[in-house]
Amino acid sequence: MNFILNTRIKCSECPIRHRAVCSRCDEDELAELEAIKNYRTFAPGDTILWRGDELQYVGSVVKGVATLGKTLEDGRTQMVGLLLPSDFIGRPGRSQVDFDITAVNEVTLCCFDRAPFEKMLHSVPHLSQRLIEIAMDELDAAREWMLLLGRKTAREKMATFIEMLASRQQIEGLSELPTDLALPLTRDEIANFLGLTLETVSRQLSQLKKEGVLEFSGRRQFTVLDYAALHDATGDDSDGGPII
Amino acid sequence: MNFILNTRIKCSECPIRHRAVCSRCDEDELAELEAIKNYRTFAPGDTILWRGDELQYVGSVVKGVATLGKTLEDGRTQMVGLLLPSDFIGRPGRSQVDFDITAVNEVTLCCFDRAPFEKMLHSVPHLSQRLIEIAMDELDAAREWMLLLGRKTAREKMATFIEMLASRQQIEGLSELPTDLALPLTRDEIANFLGLTLETVSRQLSQLKKEGVLEFSGRRQFTVLDYAALHDATGDDSDGGPII
DNA sequence: GCCCAACCTTGACCCAGATCAATTCACATG
DNA sequence: CATGTGAATTGATCTGGGTCAAGGTTGGGC
Questions:
Q1: Which residues span the domain enclosing A173?
Q2: CA distances from A233 to A168, A213, A236, B169, B237 (A)
Q3: Interchain proximity B70–A143, CB inside 8 Å
Q4: Would you place residue A2 in the very low, low, confident or very high pLDDT band (cuts 50, 70, 90)?
């Protein structure tokens, strides 16, 4: 599962390289983007957008973690997207949204107002190309996730999730995966991500700890002692993850 | 779950309105598309594309049914996409594919070669807009499917699948859902779609038959006697399906 | 440095759906 | 119209993960 892109550029003030803008934009185009740029901040637990509401902007997560969640009639929920810093948020050509977007912790978004952004899309062809690529990557991630939800065991789900976290927390350009990782979500939220219950998540983490694959230094902070064993537990092909 | 789009136009020879071309294309643009158009046919069971192969074209399904499938190391598989007539196939800006595409029965594709199509994308902005919309719709469908795989019971999965089939076999422009439906897949393939086993699929269908919701007139041909009961069984909000 | 509430862990038990195992059915073929 | 075959049904049994319940941790706030 790979939400990261190779080609991202840094916004003048944003601390991150992000996906909403394109590495091929020239000075004028970047200035145009700057002009319609603004920041929004949300408190932990805030609903950034309710299902059915109009999304008035597109943009990127600069800081914090947000989730996309869907709910059944009786209240069962499934997370269908996880937004980490640099991830794109927005639906050009579609205003309404069929899921809730919720801030897990304090979230800062770097936004571009929808109307001018879409106008710009029409005049700057490579921005459209960029968005198509982003959408194709998200579709790949969604399909990887469908395989996880439909066919993987609790243990495989957990291992896959940790491997994904590691690749997202990897320092750019470095080939080594980081050994010290932070869990951005509670057990309950992880369960929601993986289609499990919080008890099962807890048991799987305990099991991986007992086997010496992970070592915890706090509830949400841990070290991966054995990446090979972790990957073996994912059930994925040994060649290591999706192609993309 | 909704794979259908409102705006589709009919190709000169294709018997269907399809998604690869845009309703806003003018005569010249359509002529340009016609020039790079060609048809491909696949026999039942044929693999249209293997994981990792290059997809040399984009296009639409004209006839037949195809599936996108992903496989784990030990052979477990999950269907991650179902291609029915009018569905778009292709990954502009991405050549490789991270899943297998398989023909369920005899499949005819209306294809546009990738290189000229992508060149045209750059010069015709509204074609890019169109593709972004298609990708957003597929992302919505994928997320709906994730909710199904992660949280629905076998019964809810089955009911949702039948409801989706009905909406796909609905006659365009008609508000009524068709009562007589054909299953385009075997029990095994349905199981693969829903993250179940073929035995469970069979049992759920028998149950719905026993309850008088469905009536079978052959193994793959049936009538929906009670759409209300069917919808109740989906677990979805009563307002009826995704917004889009 | 104590407190408390949210978060997490662990155990006991249960059940939906998987697995294993026979039949039975639909229908294409000669 | 018999007949062979892959597809489907149905039953018996098993089990992974859900559910219910009872403590533990931990870290922020005062």
A1: 152-232
A2: 19, 10, 8, 41, 36
A3: yes
A4: very low
Inter-chain residue contact B135 with A133, CB threshold 8 Å:
no
Please compute the mean of the pLDDT values over residues B168-178 and round it to a whole number: 81
Question: A1 in a domain, yes or no?
Answer: no
Residue of A nearest to B194 (CA): A150
Residue B238 lies in a domain: no
Whose CB is within 7 A of strand C?
Answer: A 183, 186-188, 198-199, 201-203, 205-206, 216, 219-220; B 153-155, 195-197, 199-200, 218-221
> Could you tell me if B133 and B157 lie in one domain?
no
Q: Cβ A140–B98 below 8 Å, yes or no?
A: yes
- Domain count for chain A: 2
Mutation site, B55, B70, B143, B197, interface A, largest A CB count within 10 A = B143
Q: Please answer yes or no on whether A129 and B121 come within 8 Å at the CB atom.
A: yes
> What does the alpha-carbon distance between residue B77 and residue B79 come to, in Å, rounded to a whole number?
7
DSSP conformational letter for A54:
B
Q: Which of A72, A97, A144 to mutate to test the interface with B (most CBs of B within 10 A)?
A: A72
Query: Which residues touch A70 (CB under 8 Å, ≥6 apart)?
Result: A51, A77, A78, A80, A98, A99, A100, B143, B144, B146, B147
Distance from CA of B148 to the nearest CA of A (A): 9
Same domain (yes/no): B35, B103: yes
**Considering just the CA atoms, what is the radius of gyration of chain A in Å?**
19
Is B237 domain-assigned? no
- What count of other Cβ atoms lies within 10 Å of the Cβ of residue A112? 23
pLDDT tens figures, A124-136 = 888 888 888 889 9
Cα A231 from Cα B235, distance rounded (Å): 35
> Treating both helix axes as pointing N-terminal to C-terminal, what angle do A154-169 and A187-194 enclose, rounded to 10 degrees?
110
Judge if the beta carbon of A192 is closer than 7 A to nucleic acid strand D. Answer: no
Q: Looking at the structure, tell me whether residues B136 and B16 fall in a common domain.
A: yes
pLDDT tens digits, one per residue of A133-172: 889 989 999 999 999 999 999 999 999 999 999 998 887 7
Contact between A99 and A81 (Cβ < 8 Å)? yes
How far apart are alpha carbons B90 and B107 in whole angstroms? 15
